[in-house]
Amino acid sequence: MMARLTAGVTRRSAIPLALLLAALLAAPWLVNDYLLTMLIIILYFGYAGQAWNIMMGFAGQLSLGHALYLGLGGYVAATLFTRFGIGPWLGFAVAIPVASAAGAIIGFLAFRFRVAGIYFAILTIAFAEFARIGFDNWDYVHASSGLFVPVKQYAHNNPWLLRGDPTMFYYVILGATVLLFVLCHFLVRSRVGYFWLAIREDETAARAAGIDTFRYKMIAVVVSAAMTSFAGVFYAFFYNNLFPEQVFSIFRSVEIILGPIIGGIGTLFGPILGAFVLKGLAEALSSVMTAFGIDLPGVTQVFYGVCLLIVVVALPDGVWPPLARLLGIGRSKP
User: Fold this and answer.
1) Domain assignments of the chain as residue spans, ordered by start
2) Which of 169-174's residues contact partners 24+ apart within 8 Å by CB, and which partners?
3) 190-202 pLDDT, tens per residue?
4) What's the rounded Cα separation, in Å, for the pair 78 and 69?
5) Which of 115, 212, 242, 304 has its CB 3.0 to 4.6 Å from that of 147, i.e. a possible disulfide?
């Protein structure tokens, strides 16, 4: 179940993409605070889904423990801010090598000793669980009591410290999502992107053709981990709290990967579209249940499972590929 790796943004898709970007830029003036918050959450998962898609969609390495990099990014930036007054952007600069090192360790252990497929996925889950248990008992970051980012009243938005109103957070995550989209566009058009495609489709054949599969899989893991760490930084300063049971949990990892699966793994638009479809429908369901006074614990998880089942059965390549063909803006593999 994997859509073909696209060759980047095509001329036909450039105009719809520009219109979508224009609509997103104007959104804060067109929607209320509730819908704006929903858009922030959707873009957050769209960003995280793109970061995961680099590793799985482009290079074919299944990670089910991506919450590890998200949690590391959040804890590094939040700890530096709360204990030393270092702003989140400098914290992100520190989080990148920390998350990259974690990804490199996992990748080295897996790829050097030929741990692949489902066993590699289990290895990523194990490291995320190790981190969850470790942070849950580490007093320096307040262990299971949670790490809280101080909230102060600012007369004006302060993007440097990520302190301000929802509109500021919206433009920050929109900018990050757009920048990561552009990065992915250039990656899939690059030499590295085509090597990833070869590894994803048939690693044995890629190795026989002279591709250093170990090196390029490591690049995919490290880049994906580094980009995911920003999602953790944003999470920490948007929600102002971090709990190991939340940020490192397997459910957090599943939330990250559902968007790309629904939208289309290996495509540029898929992770973002999947986030809009999944989170939009989930919120609509929640609103309807609230309106009728229905309270069913775990209904969101059940809804995610139903969506995943529908996609696996009816749209194995995700929502984006058939939609692109319908709109006449798709493009076959490179």
Assistant:
1) 11-327
2) 169/40, 169/234, 169/238, 170/27, 170/28, 170/36, 170/39, 170/40, 170/43, 171/28, 172/234, 173/40, 173/43, 173/44, 173/47, 173/234, 174/24, 174/25, 174/43
3) 999 999 999 999 9
4) 14
5) 242
pLDDT band at residue 35 under the 50/70/90 scheme? very high
Q: How far apart are CA 82 and CA 242, in angstroms?
A: 12
Contact 173, 40 (CB under 8 A): yes
Q: CA-to-CA distance for 114 and 116, rounded, in angstroms?
A: 6
The domain made up of 11-327 has a fold known as ABC transporter involved in vitamin B12 uptake, BtuC (1.10.3470)
Contact 274, 262 (CB under 8 A): yes
Using the structure block, give the residue that is written with the tokens 């990561």.
180
pLDDT tens digit sequence for 89-113: 999 999 999 999 999 999 999 999 9
Rounded Cα distance, 245 and 190, in Å: 38
Least Cα distance to 99 among 74, 130, 126 occurs for 74
Rg of the chain over all Cα atoms, to the nearest angstrom = 20
Secondary structure class of 260 (helix, strand, coil): helix
Q: Which residue pairs from 121-125 have beta carbons closer than 8 angstroms and sit at least 24 positions apart in sequence? A: 121/62, 121/63, 121/64, 121/65, 122/64, 123/65, 124/63, 124/64, 124/65, 124/66, 124/68, 125/64, 125/65, 125/250, 125/253
